[in-house]
Protein backbone atom coordinates (compact mmCIF):
# COMPACT_ATOMS: atom_id res chain seq x y z
CA UNK A 1 0.00 0.00 0.00
CA UNK A 2 1.42 3.36 -0.91
CA UNK A 3 0.61 6.06 1.63
CA UNK A 4 1.71 9.59 0.90
CA UNK A 5 1.33 12.27 3.52
CA UNK A 6 0.81 15.58 1.80
CA UNK A 7 0.73 17.33 5.12
CA UNK A 8 -0.45 16.52 8.60
CA UNK A 9 -3.96 15.15 8.58
CA UNK A 10 -4.15 14.94 4.80
CA UNK A 11 -3.20 11.53 3.53
CA UNK A 12 -3.63 10.04 0.09
CA UNK A 13 -3.82 6.28 0.38
CA UNK A 14 -4.97 3.88 -2.28
CA UNK A 15 -6.98 0.96 -0.93
CA UNK A 16 -5.30 -2.40 -0.36
CA UNK A 17 -7.59 -5.42 -0.73
CA UNK A 18 -8.48 -6.86 2.66
CA UNK A 19 -7.31 -3.83 4.65
CA UNK A 20 -9.79 -1.31 6.03
CA UNK A 21 -7.68 1.55 4.72
CA UNK A 22 -10.28 4.26 5.29
CA UNK A 23 -10.88 3.00 8.82
CA UNK A 24 -7.15 3.05 9.61
CA UNK A 25 -6.68 6.54 8.17
CA UNK A 26 -9.59 7.72 10.33
CA UNK A 27 -7.97 6.14 13.42
CA UNK A 28 -4.61 7.75 12.68
CA UNK A 29 -6.30 11.10 12.07
CA UNK A 30 -8.23 10.83 15.33
CA UNK A 31 -5.00 10.11 17.21
CA UNK A 32 -3.33 13.14 15.63
CA UNK A 33 -6.33 15.40 16.22
CA UNK A 34 -6.61 14.54 19.91
CA UNK A 35 -2.89 14.31 20.69
CA UNK A 36 -1.43 17.22 18.72
CA UNK A 37 -2.79 20.13 20.84
CA UNK A 38 -1.44 18.47 24.01
CA UNK A 39 1.84 17.69 22.27
CA UNK A 40 2.19 21.29 21.11
CA UNK A 41 1.43 22.62 24.58
CA UNK A 42 4.09 20.30 25.99
CA UNK A 43 6.67 21.46 23.42
CA UNK A 44 5.79 25.10 24.22
CA UNK A 45 7.10 24.51 27.76
CA UNK A 46 10.64 23.99 26.46
CA UNK A 47 13.13 26.83 26.73
CA UNK A 48 14.23 28.47 23.47
CA UNK A 49 15.70 27.36 21.16
CA UNK A 50 14.59 23.81 22.10
CA UNK A 51 10.90 24.68 21.59
CA UNK A 52 11.69 25.80 18.03
CA UNK A 53 13.92 22.83 17.30
CA UNK A 54 11.23 20.43 18.52
CA UNK A 55 8.60 22.26 16.44
CA UNK A 56 10.84 21.76 13.39
CA UNK A 57 11.18 18.06 14.19
CA UNK A 58 7.39 17.64 14.43
CA UNK A 59 6.92 19.50 11.13
CA UNK A 60 5.07 22.50 12.60
CA UNK A 61 7.69 24.95 11.28
CA UNK A 62 10.28 24.77 8.52
CA UNK A 63 14.05 25.18 8.88
CA UNK A 64 13.66 28.99 8.62
CA UNK A 65 11.09 29.04 11.41
CA UNK A 66 8.06 29.67 9.18
CA UNK A 67 4.79 27.85 9.95
CA UNK A 68 4.64 24.56 8.03
CA UNK A 69 2.46 21.52 7.67
CA UNK A 70 5.23 18.95 7.42
CA UNK A 71 5.05 15.20 7.86
CA UNK A 72 4.87 14.66 11.62
CA UNK A 73 4.89 10.89 11.31
CA UNK A 74 2.15 8.32 10.91
CA UNK A 75 1.01 8.59 14.56
CA UNK A 76 0.49 4.84 14.91
CA UNK A 77 1.35 4.91 18.62
CA UNK A 78 -1.17 7.62 19.59
CA UNK A 79 -3.87 5.79 17.63
CA UNK A 80 -3.09 2.60 19.56
CA UNK A 81 -3.11 4.37 22.92
CA UNK A 82 -6.59 5.83 22.30
CA UNK A 83 -7.92 2.47 21.14
CA UNK A 84 -6.52 0.84 24.25
CA UNK A 85 -8.48 3.28 26.44
CA UNK A 86 -11.61 2.23 24.54
CA UNK A 87 -10.73 -1.45 25.05
CA UNK A 88 -10.94 -0.76 28.79
CA UNK A 89 -14.42 0.74 28.36
CA UNK A 90 -13.22 4.36 28.75
CA UNK A 91 -13.57 7.26 26.32
CA UNK A 92 -10.65 7.62 23.85
CA UNK A 93 -9.85 10.96 25.52
CA UNK A 94 -8.78 9.06 28.66
CA UNK A 95 -5.85 7.74 26.63
CA UNK A 96 -4.64 11.15 25.40
CA UNK A 97 -1.88 11.73 28.02
CA UNK A 98 -0.62 8.20 27.32
CA UNK A 99 -0.75 8.81 23.55
CA UNK A 100 1.24 12.02 23.94
CA UNK A 101 3.75 10.51 26.37
CA UNK A 102 4.46 7.54 24.09
CA UNK A 103 4.75 9.81 21.04
CA UNK A 104 7.21 12.01 22.95
CA UNK A 105 9.38 9.01 23.83
CA UNK A 106 9.18 7.76 20.23
CA UNK A 107 10.34 11.15 18.94
CA UNK A 108 13.10 11.42 21.55
CA UNK A 109 14.39 8.10 20.21
CA UNK A 110 14.20 9.26 16.58
CA UNK A 111 16.18 12.43 17.33
CA UNK A 112 18.94 10.45 19.01
CA UNK A 113 18.82 7.61 16.50
CA UNK A 114 19.30 9.96 13.54
CA UNK A 115 22.32 11.47 15.22
CA UNK A 116 23.84 8.10 16.14
CA UNK A 117 23.28 6.74 12.63
CA UNK A 118 24.33 9.96 10.87
CA UNK A 119 20.98 9.91 9.01
CA UNK A 120 20.39 13.12 7.12
CA UNK A 121 16.77 12.65 6.10
CA UNK A 122 13.64 11.86 8.10
CA UNK A 123 10.01 12.49 7.22
CA UNK A 124 11.02 14.03 3.89
CA UNK A 125 13.26 16.71 5.36
CA UNK A 126 16.70 17.22 6.86
CA UNK A 127 17.13 15.73 10.32
CA UNK A 128 17.40 17.92 13.40
CA UNK A 129 21.12 17.32 13.98
CA UNK A 130 21.77 18.30 10.35
CA UNK A 131 19.81 21.57 10.61
CA UNK A 132 20.32 22.57 14.25
CA UNK A 133 23.44 20.60 15.21
CA UNK A 134 24.14 17.52 17.36
CA UNK A 135 23.85 19.35 20.70
CA UNK A 136 20.27 20.40 19.97
CA UNK A 137 19.34 16.90 18.80
CA UNK A 138 20.62 15.49 22.10
CA UNK A 139 19.06 18.17 24.29
CA UNK A 140 15.66 18.17 22.60
CA UNK A 141 15.58 14.37 22.68
CA UNK A 142 16.33 14.41 26.41
CA UNK A 143 13.74 17.13 26.96
CA UNK A 144 11.02 15.17 25.13
CA UNK A 145 11.71 12.18 27.36
CA UNK A 146 11.39 14.34 30.48
CA UNK A 147 8.17 15.89 29.14
CA UNK A 148 6.69 12.43 28.56
CA UNK A 149 7.06 11.58 32.23
CA UNK A 150 5.81 15.00 33.32
CA UNK A 151 2.64 14.67 31.23
CA UNK A 152 1.75 11.37 32.89
CA UNK A 153 2.71 12.33 36.43
CA UNK A 154 0.66 15.53 36.22
CA UNK A 155 -2.51 13.42 36.02
CA UNK A 156 -1.78 12.55 39.64
CA UNK A 157 -3.84 9.34 39.94
CA UNK A 158 -2.66 5.86 40.94
CA UNK A 159 -3.35 4.72 37.36
CA UNK A 160 -1.05 7.49 36.09
CA UNK A 161 1.70 6.09 38.36
CA UNK A 162 1.12 2.63 36.85
CA UNK A 163 1.24 4.12 33.35
CA UNK A 164 4.48 5.98 34.11
CA UNK A 165 6.12 2.79 35.37
CA UNK A 166 5.13 0.98 32.18
CA UNK A 167 6.48 3.81 30.03
CA UNK A 168 9.82 4.03 31.82
CA UNK A 169 10.22 0.22 31.63
CA UNK A 170 9.50 0.37 27.88
CA UNK A 171 11.98 3.24 27.47
CA UNK A 172 14.71 1.23 29.18
CA UNK A 173 14.06 -1.65 26.76
CA UNK A 174 14.12 0.76 23.81
CA UNK A 175 17.54 1.97 24.95
CA UNK A 176 18.76 -1.63 25.45
CA UNK A 177 17.57 -2.43 21.92
CA UNK A 178 19.38 0.54 20.46
CA UNK A 179 22.60 -0.47 22.24
CA UNK A 180 22.24 -4.01 20.85
CA UNK A 181 21.51 -2.69 17.35
CA UNK A 182 24.63 -0.50 17.34
CA UNK A 183 26.85 -3.24 18.71
CA UNK A 184 25.61 -5.62 15.98
CA UNK A 185 26.77 -3.23 13.23
CA UNK A 186 30.35 -4.14 14.12
CA UNK A 187 29.79 -7.87 14.37
CA UNK A 188 30.25 -10.18 11.40
CA UNK A 189 27.45 -12.52 12.44
CA UNK A 190 24.26 -12.04 14.42
CA UNK A 191 21.71 -14.82 14.90
CA UNK A 192 18.07 -14.44 13.91
CA UNK A 193 17.16 -14.88 17.61
CA UNK A 194 19.52 -12.05 18.65
CA UNK A 195 18.07 -9.84 15.95
CA UNK A 196 14.48 -10.55 17.04
CA UNK A 197 15.38 -9.88 20.68
CA UNK A 198 16.98 -6.57 19.70
CA UNK A 199 13.96 -5.56 17.60
CA UNK A 200 11.57 -6.58 20.36
CA UNK A 201 13.40 -4.18 22.65
CA UNK A 202 13.97 -1.40 20.15
CA UNK A 203 10.47 -1.30 18.65
CA UNK A 204 8.25 -3.92 20.31
CA UNK A 205 8.48 -2.50 23.82
CA UNK A 206 7.17 0.97 22.93
CA UNK A 207 4.36 -0.33 20.73
CA UNK A 208 3.48 -2.70 23.59
CA UNK A 209 3.33 0.30 25.89
CA UNK A 210 1.19 2.26 23.39
CA UNK A 211 -1.26 -0.63 23.14
CA UNK A 212 -1.73 -0.83 26.92
CA UNK A 213 -1.16 2.65 28.35
CA UNK A 214 -4.62 3.93 27.40
CA UNK A 215 -6.19 0.90 29.06
CA UNK A 216 -4.19 1.55 32.24
CA UNK A 217 -5.31 5.19 32.26
CA UNK A 218 -8.84 3.99 31.60
CA UNK A 219 -8.71 1.86 34.78
CA UNK A 220 -8.03 -1.61 33.31
CA UNK A 221 -6.51 -4.27 35.56
CA UNK A 222 -2.91 -5.43 35.06
CA UNK A 223 -3.96 -8.69 33.41
CA UNK A 224 -5.86 -6.88 30.65
CA UNK A 225 -3.02 -4.36 30.24
CA UNK A 226 -0.45 -7.19 30.04
CA UNK A 227 -2.44 -8.96 27.31
CA UNK A 228 -2.78 -5.76 25.31
CA UNK A 229 0.96 -5.29 25.79
CA UNK A 230 1.50 -8.71 24.26
CA UNK A 231 -0.59 -7.69 21.25
CA UNK A 232 1.46 -4.49 20.94
CA UNK A 233 4.78 -6.27 21.35
CA UNK A 234 4.12 -8.67 18.46
CA UNK A 235 2.62 -5.87 16.42
CA UNK A 236 5.89 -4.01 17.09
CA UNK A 237 7.90 -6.97 15.81
CA UNK A 238 5.74 -7.05 12.66
CA UNK A 239 6.18 -3.27 12.35
CA UNK A 240 9.96 -3.55 12.63
CA UNK A 241 10.13 -6.44 10.15
CA UNK A 242 8.34 -4.20 7.64
CA UNK A 243 10.62 -1.30 8.61
CA UNK A 244 13.60 -3.55 7.84
CA UNK A 245 12.16 -4.33 4.39
CA UNK A 246 11.56 -0.63 3.76
CA UNK A 247 15.08 0.15 5.03
CA UNK A 248 16.46 -1.77 2.04
CA UNK A 249 13.79 -1.80 -0.66
CA UNK A 250 11.59 1.13 0.39
CA UNK A 251 10.75 3.89 -2.06
CA UNK A 252 12.44 7.10 -0.78
CA UNK A 253 9.41 9.09 -2.03
CA UNK A 254 7.24 7.17 0.41
CA UNK A 255 9.64 6.54 3.31
CA UNK A 256 11.18 10.02 3.42
CA UNK A 257 14.63 8.40 3.79
CA UNK A 258 17.52 7.75 1.38
CA UNK A 259 17.69 4.66 -0.83
CA UNK A 260 19.21 1.58 0.84
CA UNK A 261 19.18 3.45 4.15
CA UNK A 262 19.87 0.39 6.36
CA UNK A 263 22.58 -0.95 4.03
CA UNK A 264 24.35 2.40 4.23
CA UNK A 265 24.56 1.89 8.00
CA UNK A 266 25.66 -1.74 7.69
CA UNK A 267 22.63 -2.66 9.83
CA UNK A 268 22.21 -6.29 10.78
CA UNK A 269 18.51 -6.05 10.09
CA UNK A 270 16.28 -9.11 9.71
CA UNK A 271 16.59 -9.53 5.92
CA UNK A 272 20.40 -9.43 6.21
CA UNK A 273 20.59 -11.79 9.16
CA UNK A 274 18.08 -14.21 7.62
CA UNK A 275 19.98 -14.18 4.31
CA UNK A 276 23.30 -14.87 6.08
CA UNK A 277 21.63 -17.67 8.02
CA UNK A 278 20.17 -19.31 4.91
CA UNK A 279 23.34 -20.94 3.58
CA UNK A 280 23.95 -21.59 -0.13
CA UNK A 281 26.05 -19.70 -2.70
CA UNK A 282 24.25 -16.31 -2.48
CA UNK A 283 24.36 -16.37 1.28
CA UNK A 284 28.06 -17.21 1.28
CA UNK A 285 28.87 -14.52 -1.29
CA UNK A 286 26.91 -12.00 0.80
CA UNK A 287 28.80 -13.07 3.93
CA UNK A 288 32.14 -12.45 2.18
CA UNK A 289 31.07 -9.00 0.94
CA UNK A 290 29.64 -7.91 4.29
CA UNK A 291 32.70 -9.19 6.17
CA UNK A 292 34.91 -7.04 3.91
CA UNK A 293 32.51 -4.08 4.32
CA UNK A 294 32.76 -4.32 8.11
CA UNK A 295 36.47 -3.45 7.94
CA UNK A 296 36.15 -0.57 5.48
CA UNK A 297 36.70 2.95 6.79
CA UNK A 298 33.53 5.05 7.13
CA UNK A 299 34.54 7.44 4.28
CA UNK A 300 35.15 4.66 1.77
CA UNK A 301 31.84 3.01 2.62
CA UNK A 302 29.93 6.29 2.43
CA UNK A 303 31.24 6.78 -1.12
CA UNK A 304 29.68 3.55 -2.42
CA UNK A 305 27.65 3.89 -5.61
CA UNK A 306 23.95 2.99 -5.85
CA UNK A 307 25.03 -0.10 -7.85
CA UNK A 308 27.23 -1.36 -5.03
CA UNK A 309 24.27 -1.25 -2.63
CA UNK A 310 22.03 -2.79 -5.30
CA UNK A 311 24.40 -5.79 -5.53
CA UNK A 312 24.12 -6.35 -1.77
CA UNK A 313 20.32 -5.98 -1.84
CA UNK A 314 20.05 -8.48 -4.72
CA UNK A 315 22.14 -11.07 -2.84
CA UNK A 316 20.00 -10.62 0.29
CA UNK A 317 16.90 -11.18 -1.82
CA UNK A 318 18.30 -14.17 -3.74
CA UNK A 319 19.39 -15.79 -0.46
CA UNK A 320 15.77 -15.53 0.74
CA UNK A 321 16.16 -12.73 3.32
CA UNK A 322 13.39 -10.61 1.83
CA UNK A 323 10.79 -13.40 1.70
CA UNK A 324 11.69 -14.67 5.15
CA UNK A 325 11.23 -11.21 6.64
CA UNK A 326 7.84 -10.73 4.93
CA UNK A 327 6.74 -14.06 6.35
CA UNK A 328 8.06 -13.10 9.78
CA UNK A 329 5.93 -9.93 9.68
CA UNK A 330 2.90 -12.14 9.01
CA UNK A 331 3.84 -14.58 11.78
CA UNK A 332 4.17 -11.74 14.29
CA UNK A 333 0.86 -10.30 13.07
CA UNK A 334 -0.78 -13.70 13.71
CA UNK A 335 0.66 -13.85 17.24
CA UNK A 336 -0.63 -10.32 17.90
CA UNK A 337 -4.08 -11.48 16.76
CA UNK A 338 -3.95 -14.41 19.19
CA UNK A 339 -3.23 -12.07 22.10
CA UNK A 340 -6.01 -9.73 21.02
CA UNK A 341 -8.42 -12.66 21.01
CA UNK A 342 -8.00 -13.12 24.74
CA UNK A 343 -9.09 -9.61 25.74
CA UNK A 344 -12.82 -8.90 26.15
CA UNK A 345 -13.84 -5.77 24.28
CA UNK A 346 -16.65 -4.56 22.02
CA UNK A 347 -16.48 -6.07 18.51
CA UNK A 348 -16.17 -2.64 16.96
CA UNK A 349 -13.05 -1.80 19.01
CA UNK A 350 -11.53 -5.21 18.27
CA UNK A 351 -12.07 -4.61 14.54
CA UNK A 352 -10.07 -1.38 14.81
CA UNK A 353 -7.14 -3.14 16.52
CA UNK A 354 -7.24 -5.71 13.71
CA UNK A 355 -7.33 -3.03 11.00
CA UNK A 356 -4.35 -1.23 12.54
CA UNK A 357 -2.39 -4.49 12.64
CA UNK A 358 -3.28 -5.21 8.99
CA UNK A 359 -2.09 -1.73 8.04
CA UNK A 360 1.25 -2.25 9.79
CA UNK A 361 2.00 -5.29 7.65
CA UNK A 362 1.14 -3.72 4.29
CA UNK A 363 2.42 -0.19 4.88
CA UNK A 364 4.91 1.32 2.48
CA UNK A 365 6.06 4.21 4.63
C1 LIG B 1 17.39 5.15 22.44
C2 LIG B 1 17.26 5.18 20.99
C3 LIG B 1 18.04 6.18 20.25
C4 LIG B 1 16.43 4.30 20.41
C5 LIG B 1 16.13 4.25 18.97
C6 LIG B 1 15.07 3.24 18.72
C7 LIG B 1 14.52 3.30 17.33
C8 LIG B 1 14.83 4.44 16.44
C9 LIG B 1 13.76 2.30 16.92
C10 LIG B 1 13.10 2.26 15.58
C11 LIG B 1 11.64 2.34 15.77
C12 LIG B 1 10.92 2.65 14.50
C13 LIG B 1 10.42 1.50 13.71
C14 LIG B 1 10.78 3.92 14.11
C15 LIG B 1 9.94 4.36 12.99
O1 LIG B 1 8.64 4.54 13.50
P1 LIG B 1 7.47 5.13 12.65
O2 LIG B 1 7.51 4.52 11.28
O3 LIG B 1 6.21 4.98 13.42
O4 LIG B 1 7.88 6.66 12.53
P2 LIG B 1 6.95 7.92 12.24
O5 LIG B 1 6.56 8.48 13.56
O6 LIG B 1 7.83 8.85 11.48
O7 LIG B 1 5.78 7.45 11.42
TrEMBL record:
CDD domains: Trans_IPPS_HT. Pfam families: polyprenyl_synt. Keywords: Magnesium, Metal-binding, Transferase. Belongs to the FPP/GGPP synthase family. This is Polyprenyl synthetase family protein. It comes from Streptomyces javensis.
